[in-house]
Amino acid sequence: MAPLPDDGRTALAWEALSTVLDPELPAVNIVELGLVREVTATSAPDGVLVAITPTFSACPAWHVIERNAVAALQAAGVGRVVVEKRIAPAWSSDDMTEGARAKLERFGIAPPAVHGGLVQLAIEAPVRCPRCGHPDTRLRNAFGSTLCREIRTCAACHETFERFKPL
Amino acid sequence: MTLAPELSAALVERLTAFADDELVLGHHQAGWTGHAPLLEEDIAIANVAQDEIGHAVAWLELRAALDGSDPDRLVFFRAASDYRSAWLSEQPRGDWAFTMLRQYLFDAYEAELLARLSASSYRPLADTAAKVAREELFHLRHSRLWVERLAHGTDESRDRLVSAVAVAWPLMAQLLAPLPQDAALEAAGITYSSRDLEESVVAATSAELVRHGFALPPFAPVPAGDPRALRTEHLAPTLLVMQSVARSDADAQAW
After folding, report:
1. Which A residues 94-153 touch B at CB under 8 Å?
2. What domains can you pick out in chain B, each with its CATH number?
3. Full-model pTM
4. What ipTM goes with this model?
5. Pick from A30, A18, A27: which is nearest to A61 by CA?
6. Are B64 and B94 in contact (CB under 8 A)?
7. Contact present, B32 and B46 (Cβ < 8 Å)
């Protein structure tokens, strides 16, 4: 499938994809999470090829994301939709936008620190409480309500909250 | 990327062994959901189990690309005798000490394994291994800490860990033993040196256990020829439970 001169389809597709929310994190969409790796116009029949990557391999939200992406693209009228699950390069929490980080924090989930590949350091680095902003928070559980989160407690306001894990 | 037929067949065997190790272990760990000793650990072990089962799917998807097999059919409709899981994975769930020790040994093995597979000449394998390795980082940190905690906790926790080491450690030999077809994969740069992997895993895990004052029993003898030709008596009853829902309605579209 050779890419065609784009008639605005890819822009329309990106717009449609940015309405697809992560079902486990309904504050952010899959584009700002960095899950959409590629959108290409295709021909015969006209349509788009969309490459999406999972956060964690075992993420149970994957099938919902895939289904919702196809539905949003079809509703946007971009022609035939092909969604490809793309593993490489592996998703990193660094792939999410600054805007997504801010939304997560407002949602009550501490965002992952940008680590530039030094994940071990980011895991150990201090985490600010998303509720009161205090920097003194403690790890309660390296695992949380979903694969991508851990549970922490704030030493100042004593609230328990989740952090999106650096990956 | 296309492999020669004999390499493809060898890699199918290898991937099936990886997948079955993770699947059977993940199933056992999932059995703790709702029963773990602490609420936090209930959440943690459920996460670990979910990851291992997800990784089994990742290996089976790589296999599917080679032989067109269906991962769900392989998992839910394969007889125990056709599984390729390691004896360590097949052991029953056991107590919390056994659970965490087995998880630690498996995590330490996977850390070394995935680092090597990430350099595979077969790109899809390297890509999957690199992704799985990132996720496994959280497992090893967790299970290693639990082994330390139980080793220096109470007399009972230490006794239980001693019993767990007696069962789990000797089985590491079979987990690490190369399959008959592995030499061809190794020669093609698709997989690692089995000997080097074994030495690294044994060095890392034995140092950790000896550090906590454990005496390690000798490795169990590994069957000549195919080390994974035979299953333990534990696998069939495990599959009876794991496969029961799928087998009750083989044509179900969703369940």
Report:
1. 119-120, 123, 140-145, 147, 151
2. 5-219+227-247 (1.20.1260.10)
3. 0.91
4. 0.82
5. A30
6. no
7. yes
